[in-house]
Inverse folding.
């Protein structure tokens, strides 16, 4: 009897360990850029791809995968339509394609465009958000479930470089951060300018598309420094669940039930520099929030979560020199280590850091000449980093030292999407193509 029970439990354990994971949103199943997947491919050369699919246009949105479905926001390079794509994970064939908005102006915004937000899915629906404020949900067959126009409801997003904050789907609710300047940066009506006076966190019922609440997030930052392109990151500390945002010279933690602010850390910009938008999100591990700051002008902060009110003077765990703080890339937590990618074209360094103390364990320079606009992703003992020129570097994870396992030149320029990992496969979106590696 005991032997039979032991065999059953052993089989159950093996099944849990080897089960393939989905990648339901930008930072993956653990909200920190990592996956428990193992058995990933050993090589990522272009010619070894399981399949590749040409995309209708470029986008900074990363692939989102659930079972056999891949969801991708995109542009159409011919007519600048904003579209929603669903691709078959097994063979790369397009299952459906929907036009969400027609002929949107994408002339401003540098390298980004209006299709920069990654989709989210919970296995029943896929939700797409665009920099225009268009928000739409589809079922897996491509049937439209509901549609919203956030620009109509709350004004155009007042950000200079195209709104591209990926939404968060967590606890049965959809969270959309709008951290923006206090006036319209595009030509628009006075009504639009009036609506653009607040930054806010919006909570929506993902089944109906209806608002549950909207919480205004104040900031004493000025100008472009009010702008943030972050995604809310959830975690639980001392039995309390928090959603953490960064931008406007502050880190804030919010109640996922009503948006109420639990605590706030900042400001690191006492002279009110007004031209430094913030791109990356925080990473969180074991009750510590890891907060990057922009443009190598301020330190990298580790903040003890779970506080109340202004915790600037009481909850700093440690900080790193401003030269380490990444301007664009969100930090990665994997196997109890913190990884920071400074993707700037002058440095291109990956740091491995003790997450409890901030002590540097190792660092190394990644190959290539171009900037890393993407964030590092990890699984199977590997860290995946891809630069603007589609040079994919696979680095060995762990404390042993900096070691590049492989660098693959995929050959497609204008890559701004982070790698995604699901179902024992690795998905790489370049400027023109979606690649799948792994059988």
């Amino acid at each position: 009897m005991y032997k039979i029970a032991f065999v059953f439990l052993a089989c159950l354990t093996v099944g849990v360990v080897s089960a393939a994971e989905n990648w339901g949103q930008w930072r993956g199943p653990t909200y920190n850029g990592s996956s428990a997947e193992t058995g990933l491919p050993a090589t990522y050369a272009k010619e070894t791809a399981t399949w590749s699919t040409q995309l209708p246009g470029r986008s900074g949105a990363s692939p989102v995968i659930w079972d056999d479905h891949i969801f991708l926001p995109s542009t159409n390079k011919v007519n600048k339509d904003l579209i929603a794509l669903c691709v078959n994970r097994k063979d790369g064939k397009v299952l459906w394609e929907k036009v969400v908005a027609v002929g949107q102006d994408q002339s401003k915004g540098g390298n980004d465009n209006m299709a920069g937000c990654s989709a989210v899915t919970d296995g029943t629906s896929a939700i797409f958000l665009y920099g225009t404020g268009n928000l739409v949900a589809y079922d897996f067959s491509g049937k439209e479930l509901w549609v919203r126009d956030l620009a109509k409801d709350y004004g155009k997003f007042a950000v200079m470089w195209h709104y591209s904050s990926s939404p968060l789907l967590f606890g049965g609710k959809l969270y959309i951060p709008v951290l923006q300047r206090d006036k319209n940066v595009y030509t628009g009506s006075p009504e639009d300018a009036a609506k653009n006076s607040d930054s806010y966190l919006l909570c929506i019922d993902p089944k109906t598309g209806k608002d549950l609440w909207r919480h205004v997030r104040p900031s004493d930052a000025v100008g472009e420094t009010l702008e943030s392109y972050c995604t809310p990151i959830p975690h639980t500390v001392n039995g309390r669940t928090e959603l953490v945002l960064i931008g406007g010279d502050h880190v804030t933690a919010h109640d996922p039930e009503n948006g109420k602010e639990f605590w706030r850390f900042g400001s690191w910009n006492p002279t009110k520099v007004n031209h430094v938008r913030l791109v990356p999100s925080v990473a969180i591990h074991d009750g510590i929030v890891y907060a990057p700051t922009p443009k190598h002008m301020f330190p990298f902060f580790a903040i003890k979560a779970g506080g109340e009110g202004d915790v600037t003077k009481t909850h700093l765990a440690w900080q790193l020199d401003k030269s380490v703080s990444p301007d664009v890339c969100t930090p990665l937590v994997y196997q109890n280590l913190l990884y920071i990618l400074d993707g700037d074209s002058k440095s291109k360094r990956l740091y491995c850091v003790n997450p409890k103390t901030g002590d540097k364990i190792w660092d190394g320079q990644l190959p290539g000449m171009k900037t890393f606009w993407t964030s590092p992703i990890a699984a199977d003992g590997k860290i995946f980093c891809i630069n603007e020129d589609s040079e994919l570097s696979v680095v060995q994870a762990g404390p042993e030292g900096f070691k590049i396992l492989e660098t693959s030149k995929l050959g497609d320029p204008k890559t701004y999407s982070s790698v995604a990992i699901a179902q024992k496969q690795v998905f790489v979106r370049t400027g023109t193509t979606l690649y799948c590696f792994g059988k």
